[in-house]
Amino acid sequence: MTPDRLVAGLDIGTATTTALIGEVVGDLPRNPVFKVLGVGHARTTGLRRGVVADIEETARAIARAVTDAEQMAGAKVGEVYVGISGEHVQTMTSKGIAAVSGAEITRADVDRVNAVARAQAIPPDRELLHAIPQEYSVDRAQGVRDPVGMVGTRLETEMYLVTVGGAPAVNLRKAVERAGCRVRELVLGPLASALCVLDEDEKELGVAVVEMGAGTTDIALFHEGKIRHVATLGYGGHNVTSDIVHGLGLTQADAERLKER
């Protein structure tokens, strides 16, 4: 086990918190493989509809899940990638234009046009989470995936910007830090799920990833290889359980078991 290849992820849901520890192996960097070493679960009581409502309760759930994962993996982790979602997530598309500085397009030109597209005014109560290049245009020739090495004078990009509420992001970081971990990066939950389960053909043809949690349902739409839309609905498994309770006159525990079966 190589410590610098250890990666830890944390999914803090309305009902369950899951921690996962793995090692990046394989033919690096061309063909990385993620080997799962440990998984931990804990019941969450500090979240409401995907947003931290009690920092202390959330921190206790995180600590339990991380401790179980560390014991299974036989390794300690200090930093974690943390999934974030909720109705506070907002997205928009931004465009950037830059003149090519040399005979052909270089990585510096791509970085420059990406920086122009990212330079959008973000309200003070929001935080930029992801800036995802969708496609590039070289001298108005559209649909370019990677323009490096191409010849042209004008480079354009279309970028998908994802922002989250500043307060939910800060509270989530505080809960993780009180559990004894550092947040390496916040990652949009629906995007992380899509990256795990979709292949390139599915994203090219068009596909929707629907992830139903206890308090919310996350949706990510892809078409022509690009992410097109992300949404969080304020309904989840708890609503299904509640409907069964009222519709069939069952207890909460019986309705939960019936739903799961």
Can you tag this structure with a few keywords?
alpha+beta; 261 residues; five-stranded mixed sheet
Overall, the morphology is globular
Q: Spans of 5+ residues with little confidence (pLDDT < 50)?
A: none
Tell me the span between the first and last alpha carbons: 39 Å
Sheet with most strands: strand arrangement: 3-2-1-6-11
Radius of gyration: 21 Å
Proportion of beta-strand residues: 35-45%
Q: Roughly how much helix do the residues carry, as a percent range? A: 25-40%
Order of helices and strands: EEEEEHEEHEEEHEHHEEEHH
Mean pLDDT: 92
Largest sheet: 5 strands, mixed
Count of DSSP helices? Answer: 7
Count every beta strand, where a strand is a DSSP E run of 2 or more residues: 14
Describe what you observe in this structure.
There is one protein chain. With 261 residues, this protein is of the alpha+beta class. The protein contains seven helices and 14 strands. The longest helix has 19 residues, at 55-73.
Q: What is shown here, in short?
A:
It is built from 7 helices and 14 strands.
Indicate the topology.
Elements: E1 6-12, E2 16-27, E3 31-43, E4 47-48, E5 51-52, H1 55-73, E6 79-84, E7 90-99, H2 107-118, E8 126-138, E9 141-144, E10 154-165, H3 166-178, E11 182-188, H4 189-197, H5 200-205, E12 207-212, E13 217-223, E14 226-233, H6 237-248, H7 252-260
Parallel strand pairs: 1-6, 6-11
Antiparallel strand pairs: 1-2, 2-3, 4-5, 7-10, 8-9, 8-10, 12-13, 13-14
Helix pairs in contact: 1-3, 6-7
